[in-house]
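Appendix B. Raw example, untouched.
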Amino acid sequence: MAVEYQARGAGEEPAKDAAVRGGARHGAGFARPGGTWWRSALRSPLGRCAAGLLLLVLLLTAFGPLLWSGRADAIDTGHLLEGPSAQHWMGTDNLGRDVFFRVLVATRLSVLLALLATALGVLTGLLLGAAPALLGRGAGRAVTAVVNIAVAFPGLLLALFFAVVFGVGTTGAVLAIGFATAPGFARLTQTLVASVGERDYVCAARVAGVGRARVLTRHILPNVAEPLIVNATIGAGGALLAFSGLSFLGLGVQAPSYDWGRLLGEGLNGIYTHPAAALAPGVAVIVAGLAFNLTGEAVARAVGVPGARAHRTPAAAARPAPVGPPAAEPRDTPVLAVEDLRVSFPGPHGPVTAVRGVGFTVGRGESVGLVGESGSGKSLTALAVSRLIEHPGVVDAGRLEFLGAPLPAGDGGGTAMRKLLGTRLAMVFQDPMTSFNPAMRIGRQLAEVAEQHLATGRREALARAVERLREVRVPAAERRAAQYPHEFSGGMRQRAMIGLGLMGRPALIIADEPTTALDVTVQRQVLSLLERVRAADGAALLLISHDINVVARTCDRVLIMYAGRVVEELPSHRLLTAARHPYTRALVATVPHMETDLDRPLTVVPGRPVTPDRMPAGCAFAPRCSAAGDRCRTDDPVLRASGPDHRVACWYPHPGPAARPRAEKSADPAAEAGERP
């Protein structure tokens, strides 16, 4: 029975050192949890001017009607339509009411209605923009199509259309302005959510079994909040202008209530004889609009300026409640069983298959290495078995089982499967900086797994997180739990990522290049930690690496991948001496060792790796293989047995031992990690 589901593309761009020091970059700007961007905004002349104008508008909104309602509504038939004077600074209207005080009193209704319309537009746009992340691929694409159609129309045209639909009056105008501004905000939200939704820390949350709504509210929206707030602030100024325009046309506020737009419409009748009556509300609209727009611009400029924040050390929590052992499974059932796994993506001339018929098993407590050049399909294979490949990628497998249960089709997997993946499968990504949510403290991110799957309270979950940090040798674990990812070193972040996987009782740890960006000392520590975890908890390990030495000394079995296929499988202690496939032997030969002649150029694998969209006929390695024959260029070899615990996919496997001397497996599998033998 084939298993199909949608999954995520592979690979994430590593975070830059500067971004790590100044705050992780995400969304449309630099987000710093609890940062002091507002202080930075106030330091600039633009920020101080914007803050002053905004404070003035808010004060008039709060106190204008309380102070001047009586004078604004007082009718004086003896002073009808008078010009500016010492008694009436902006003159009077057709009932003798003071225009200046009416403008001040109208501030509250004008600003509140604009803010209400902005809030409606932001909330509607947020729901529409986040729909693909909440509803899944099908419904999300339908909502996106509706948003794209709405964005194609000018906002003023949409506002007039909705004003006709909802009717004349304050309520209709609020709904019209709100729904007219929603498509633009929805488009912005879609872009920001999509940019953050592919980050490793979001994928890690999905592997942990966190539901869609919680992933959106805890891991995505906090990391795009600042650009959304900036645009909402600027949008408030636009809503104020639009609402005044509707009232000016007679579609907004109706008598006896009045806002700036209605006062502007009334004053326009005598613009040539009494211009001050129209000038005063017009100036008020401009000043308030500038206050909101300049505030948004000042905040936008300040976002990204590094700031500091004092961190609180959490109080000592109670010891974590013991977690009962998982239900026993048959000992002969493999942790992971994969047969005929294929991963494809749409291409200009049809589907492009990046993983082609991969099959393997990982037994309980076993360590299996996955080795190959970049682009060979190693990471895609790991992402496929972890259910992290989304549309437009398609995964198909003849068998895809974890702990004896088939991984279900679809992209949610249901509550039971989320719990299984959250507690029994751990994923250690290549770059821990992008694997952690930069807007959440390390301790909270680890505790989330316990809260979701172990039914523990907030304090107990945090205590368990601190305990796991201690287990992975993070110094001062209680203090470190209160820090953010950018405050950890690279090796410490990798340890914390392993601790995240240990919040449950993992039966399988998938480590995708866990030591690539680390120096050799930290490499040794991380690999030793993985080995200790595997020995202590009996967890299986699927280790993906480019380093032949690391895999040979850490793993029990090794799978060699090329062009999306497994071309050889053999025990790790025979990798350096008994490899039979030409590609495996070429990889082993490229690794320098103590007997390498330093006067000769280093050995390289000839040619370039093939790309999935240009797969040749026959054996994919034939164009680079010196031993290839005619059959290799027409027939694709299958993976077949070539001895005890040894399989090879080659028509002409090498019969003799490999050229380099055998390396004894170290008592400490990571003792020589990163060293060149």
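End of appendix B.
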